[in-house]
Structure formats: C-alpha cells, structure tokens
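Hello everyone,

My group is preparing for a crystallization screen and wants a predicted model to guide construct design. The compound we'll soak is adenosine-5'-triphosphate. Before spending weeks at the bench, it would help to have a computed complex in hand. I've included the protein sequence and the ligand's SMILES below. Output in structure-token form would be ideal because that's what our pipeline reads.
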Amino acid sequence: MSSFRLNLPDHVQVMKAADKSAGQSSDNSPTSRTAVFTAHGLTKVYRMGEVDVHALRGVDVEMYAGEFVVILGASGSGKSTLLNILGGLDVPTSGRVSFRDQSLTDADEDDLTEYRREHIGFVFQFYNLIASLTAKENVALVADIAKDPLEPEEALRKVGLYDRRDHYPSQLSGGEQQRVAIARAIGKRPDVLLCDEPTGALDVKTGVIVLEAIARINQDLGTLTAVITHNAAIAEMADRVISLSDGRVAEIHVNQNRKEAKELVW
Ligand SMILES: Nc1ncnc2c1ncn2[C@@H]1O[C@H](COP(=O)(O)OP(=O)(O)OP(=O)(O)O)[C@@H](O)[C@H]1O
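Reply:
Good plan to model first. Here are the tokens for the complex, ready for your pipeline.
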C-alpha cells in the first residue's frame, strides 16, 4: 500500500461507509479504505509506423470507493490513456489493473463490454447526445439497459435539469447539454464516474455549474469520481490529485481542505 494511505480526509472515510460495496469489508478501522482500482506498472505504447509513442511509462495507482480524484497533467502526459484503461476502453501494453477483485488485464472484449456497462459512467468533453431525443429520453436510453437504474427524472434532478427534461439538445446550452450527459452517465447508477475534460468546451461560469453537478453526485451517491483536467484550479476540488508527467505519476497530493466548485477561480 502507498505511503499516502493514512492521510485521506475524514470525508472519504464517511463516503466509504456509504458506498454500496463497503459492506464487503470487515475492516472498519478509521484508516481502512476499499480499493476500487489497483494498477501496477502500467505501460502503453502506441506504434505509429516506425515510431513508438510511450503514453504511459509505468504507472502505479490506486483509487478508493467514494473519493473524488483529479488526474492533472499537461497535454500528452497520458491522462486519457490512463482513464481509458481504467474504464475498460483500452488495454495496457504491460502491467496489471484490477477493478475490485476483477482483473481487467485478463478480461476479453466481452468481459470488458459487460464491465463498462455494469460499472462505469463516462463523461467526455463533447456531450454526444442524440439530437432527436429529449433530455429525458437521452438519459432513459442508458437507464433502460441497466440492472438498477435511477429514474431518468431523478438523474436529471441531480444535475439541476428536471425542469428541462422535455427539451431537445438544440434547445439547451453547452453546459446544460453536458449536465444531461452527466445524468445519462449516472442513470445506470455506476460504481465509478470517469470524466475526461468535462469542462474543456465550456466557459468558466458554465464549467463551475457542471463541476458542481459532478461533485454533488460524488457526494450524494458515493460514486468514485475521477476527473481529468489540465486545469490546476479544478484540482482544488479533489480529495486527491494524481499528477501525470510524460507518462509517469509525478506526484500524488492529498487536499486537506477541498474547495467547492463555486470557490474556484481560473
Ligand atoms: N491512439 C493513439 N495512437 C497513437 N498515439 C496516441 C494515441 N492515443 C494517445 N496517443 C499519444 O499518447 C500520448 C498520451 O496521450 P493522452 O491522450 O493519454 O494524453 P493526455 O494527457 O490525455 O493529453 P490531452 O490533455 O491533450 O488530451 C500522446 O503523445 C498522444 O499523442
């Protein structure tokens, strides 16, 4: 286990207790945490003709039930590659990664599809909503194939868009569309919410509203939430900040005092 293990704020211990999976652990000591992701020695090499691009160069990382993690780093540092591997969208070149006690490295395509469907909600920079469906219908589409879904109205309420449920994407602002995308991602009540630059296409004010929605879901549902950004201000919201540089973990920082989204300035 890593040396920063004992430093997690009380908030995370509380979230762990609230997490659905916490009952699986018999260790109730204040320093116990349920590892959701455990990755060791992850590398990813993309072969581009004659050239090898080393996106990850040996990443060791753990993420815990209920925490809010920001993955921070410059463009090209490997953030999306790491998130895609954790989310089962990609596989490492070498190294091991597991979700709870399920190895993702040994999983085949079908296993990874089922893993993503059951456990992971994704939010990307661009919202990818279906233009011909209302907000509610966009959310229902995912909830329909889930085992224990949130009602689409409830998911939209959590992101502050219940009143706009019958609106089409073209009738919503960029920030509102992103919040529908977040409602869609949580509609299946995922264990993990993975967000890749969720505010990248938004102005500051709208970005803050989107971050507030993500933080509320982390808080209310106890969903392990990982947000990728190159914006250091956003890192102040996190329980922990994993900084990547050139495909390596450069630093892991524990925020003793998390800021609320509305306090952020950038
Ligand atoms: N499919 C791919 N084929 C080839 N190279 C890739 C591929 N995906 C990523 N890379 C390369 O791997 C490195 C890491 O990319 P990655 O997208 O993970 O970085 P990032 O930190 O998320 O960057 P950004 O903030 O710009 O999205 C980069 O050099 C990138 O060009």
